[in-house]
Amino acid sequence: MRKIVAFDHMTLDGYVSSGKGMGFEWTNRAYDEELSAYAQHIQEDIDLPVYGRETYLGMSGYWSTQPTAESTPTERAHAEWVNAVDKIVVSTTLESADWNNTRLVRGNLAEEFGRLKEQPGGTIAIYASPKLVHSFLALGLIDEFRIVLHPVVIGGGTPLFPTGTDLELTLEESRSFAAGATYLRYSVA
């Protein structure tokens, strides 16, 4: 059975989006080449990225125009992967999903993703998209969290875990980086 993971960058005070611009401008301080290279390991088993509407619009707007001559080797590798892989955007307001190999899912997440978990394949990963993560949490669909914890406090925004979330987690992997970020992989107990 495939698993569904939430892959998020998070502030020390628990937020994954600042609510300003794309919402993750605060990742710049600790997102260095070491972490960028390690992200390939974090994502190596993922074969189906999933985005909420806001994240999808930002990611497709950026990655669909990549790689460029200025791209680093890591950025180039990610651009080639994300532009080629099948993707899902979950939205009730988008009319279409125009990014290469993207399918639009409008509703009934439990049925749709329950069916996808039963199909052969690798890991299904929700990238950023905190509101979508909240929906999946409410439905009990998340099997694992992959969190890059950043050494910043922003004082507000959208948290990874909404008020009332009650989960027991098991630490599966961790790694610290010189720029101050820490990777944490937890399975849902």
From TrEMBL:
Entry's Gene Ontology molecular function annotations: 5-amino-6-(5-phosphoribosylamino)uracil reductase activity
Pfam families: RibD_C
GO BP annotation list: riboflavin biosynthetic process
SUPFAM superfamilies: Dihydrofolate reductase-like
Domain Bacterial bifunctional deaminase-reductase C-terminal residue range list: 3-180
Record PANTHER family: 2,5-DIAMINO-6-RIBOSYLAMINO-4(3H)-PYRIMIDINONE 5'-PHOSPHATE REDUCTASE, DIHYDROFOLATE REDUCTASE FAMILY PROTEIN (AFU_ORTHOLOGUE AFUA_8G06820)
Protein name per Swiss-Prot or TrEMBL: Bacterial bifunctional deaminase-reductase C-terminal domain-containing protein
Species annotation: Microbacterium azadirachtae
Lineage: Bacteria, Bacillati, Actinomycetota, Actinomycetes, Micrococcales
